[in-house]
Amino acid sequence: MNLYEVKGETEVIISENEFLIDGYDVGDRLLEGVMFEVKFQNDENGLPEIISVNVVEESKNYFEQLNQNKWLSAIKKYAEEILEYGDEVELSDKLKKKYGVKEAFLAEQIN
To answer: Taking the model in full, what pTM does it have?
Structure first.
């Protein structure tokens, strides 16, 4: 599984194995704007597996007031679905700047 940025007809492979999830996708308004960083790696068979899911620093104070185990588990499950089926994902500002991209797609390859 790779992250891709599509610019016109060109695919740029992003070599990092991390992406962001907005909690709204899992927790609706309760987690709207709460961002989670997902890191993954490919296992010995080349299949992606999640190695960590963490709330980003800017969202920690709010997130500490919630049932953290419940929501981290739900975010991890959602991230596993993204890794299995592919989808548009967000990148950290650091990665956007590094690769000069605005958005990315997680996929085996872009056709």
So the answer is: 0.77
